[in-house]
Design goal:
Layout: E1 2-6, E2 9-13, H1 27-36, H2 44-60, H3 66-72, H4 77-83, H5 88-96
Antiparallel strand pairs: 1-2
Helix pairs in contact: 1-5, 2-5
């Protein structure tokens, strides 16, 4: 089992570094995960996307793709790339404590 230490706390992660147990997630951990990928401060826009990702995953059991995010989250694709520059869907999923969306490299 792989682990990652953030904020002095060890968390269990999958082979790609994503949170293994979505129930371990909380907003404090989200801030640490965000910092881990270079997001120094979580804005209202970040939280909107992260909460959308979690809600959709918990409802459907599938992480939303970039297409779904741009279409259903209320955040435009352009804004998504401003918030999560190195891959909105996979970075937002990482911060949201859910698995990487299918189709993300």
């Amino acid at each position: 089992m792989a682990t990652k230490t953030l904020g002095g706390k060890s968390i269990e992660v999958d082979e790609q570094g994503y949170l293994k147990n979505t129930a371990d997630w909380n907003e404090e951990l989200a801030k640490l995960l965000a910092a881990d990928v270079g997001i120094s401060a979580m804005t209202e826009g970040h939280w909107k996307v992260v909460k959308f990702m979690r809600e959709r995953y918990l409802k459907n059991g599938d992480s939303p793709s970039i297409r779904t995010l741009g279409k259903d989250s209320g955040v435009t694709t352009k804004e998504l790339y401003q918030l999560f520059p190195k891959g909105p869907a996979k970075l937002a999923a990482y911060v949201a404590g859910i698995p990487k969306p299918r189709g993300c490299i």
